[in-house]
Amino acid sequence: MYTQALDTHGKDAAAGATEGDAHATRFQARVDAEEKVEPKDWMPEAYRQTLIRQISQHAHSEIVGMLPEGNWITRAPTLKRKAVLIAKVQDEGGHGMYLYSAAETLGIARAQMLEQLLSGAAKYSSIFNYPTLTWADVGAIGWLVDGAAIMNQIPICRCSYGPYARAMVRICKEESFHQRQGFEIMLTLTQGSHAQREMAQDALNRWWWPSLMMFGPSDADSKHTAQSMRWKIKRFSNDELRQKFIDITVPQAHFLGLTIPDNELHWDEATQHYRVGPIDWSEFYAVLKGNGPCNRERLEARQRAHESGRWVREAAAAHAERARNRSNPAQVAGEAA
Amino acid sequence: MSEADWPLFEVFIRSRSGLEHKHVGSLHAADARMAIEHARDVYTRRQEGVSLWVVRSADIIASDPEEADALFEPARDKVYRHPTFYEIPDEVKNL
């Protein structure tokens, strides 16, 4: 799942974008012709840095995204739901791995990305800093959060950078089960008891607005969209994708008999779109800055996992080293001498 | 915190018996055995394959994109290597 348009290109992105040499012109011509850029091809430094940032943030989001749902694995209501949830969380971990690999082709080491995540320097999708309080939250995440992520990610399958595009094709294929299982959880709850319907409504109330924020700041405040579009890293603006998501999701909520928590929501006959009320961007920026309900908890959980796994990594490295020495005693003797 | 990365491996999958192995991505592992196990977990959660290859990325020798023209351009004007280059009368069969 889970890329988010965070619009956090560095200052270098703006500077490098104007590189006027022949290489840059040829590069842009290739991109314009929809040719894919591959790891060893020449590329503007700003293109490289933008992609490293975007792909690594995307990878971090997958990894941190395992936490809110992992919270419910031991409490899933049936064995079937539990098996599905484990499979889904495992997929998110896999997606993180595909993406880290894609980012590495741009010249950043895995260890460096991990360090950026664990030190709190790196950003990840703001949505994972919200808590999963009830089982219905697992349904709402699949339906809304994965739904928003798919909307974001399908255009990235056509990204100009080959390794990112290919990773995204694989991810999107796996993602659709995530969304459907979430909707099915919501459907089951809304067909259940009064308390279960309330639980589903409560989850929608809490996840609706953060899901809309997943598409990133509104176009008016999104400084780097134009450059990313020129580079064909991005195909649609944040607001375009958000609108698409709203248009397909509102009828799904109606089908469930749930109410979107927005008094201003209405169907606009002239434009044939659902229109939502204003989004509280101060909340988005607060969560992004580290002040969401679970930012600290998420980071601590990753740090703890990393520390707890240290002995396993050390043991594996020692084992590999010993096996290498055993199969190659002559070389070891030579090195010693 | 900064431990050195385990070596990088490229992963190839034979999707069905009778087909060739195809590159699918890469991963880090302490050794070849672990690379196979990780490849199983990362790249074949949905029966994507019946066989895996892992190769240390450092052992792959790739052609230089800058030399692509020199390498591949000479084949471009040799259309006579394709059967459609030859005109055969319609009435001649089985050619």
Description of the molecule:
The complex is a heterodimer of chains A (337) and B (95). By secondary structure, chain A is an all-alpha fold. Helix content of chain A is 66%, strand content 2%. A two-stranded antiparallel sheet of chain A has the order 1-2. In chain A, strand 1 and strand 2 (273-275) form a beta hairpin. In chain A, helix 3 (45-70) runs antiparallel to helix 4, helix 6 (135-153) packs parallel to helix 8 and helix 6 (135-153) packs antiparallel against helix 10. The radius of gyration of chain A is 22 Å and the shape is globular. Chain B is of the alpha+beta class. Helix content of chain B is 18%, strand content 22%. Chain B has helices at 32-43, 68-72, and strands at residues 8-14, 21-28, 51-56. Chain B has a 3-stranded antiparallel sheet with strand order 2-1-3, covered by helices on one side. Chain B is elongated and about 70 Å long. In chain B, 19% of the residues are buried.
Short descriptors:
heterodimer; A: 337 residues; mainly alpha; B: 95 residues; alpha+beta; three-stranded antiparallel sheet; 3 strands; 18% helix; elongated
List the helices and strands and how they pair.
The complex is a heterodimer of chains A (337) and B (95).
Chain A: H1 11-16, H2 22-32, H3 45-70, H4 79-104, H5 110-118, H6 135-153, H7 162-190, H8 194-213, H9 225-230, H10 238-256, E1 266-268, E2 273-275, H11 281-291, H12 295-308, H13 310-327, H14 329-336
Antiparallel strand pairs in A: 1-2
Chain B: E1 8-14, E2 21-28, H1 32-43, E3 51-56, H2 68-72
Antiparallel strand pairs in B: 1-2, 1-3
Short description:
Helices cover 66% and strands 2% of the residues of chain A.
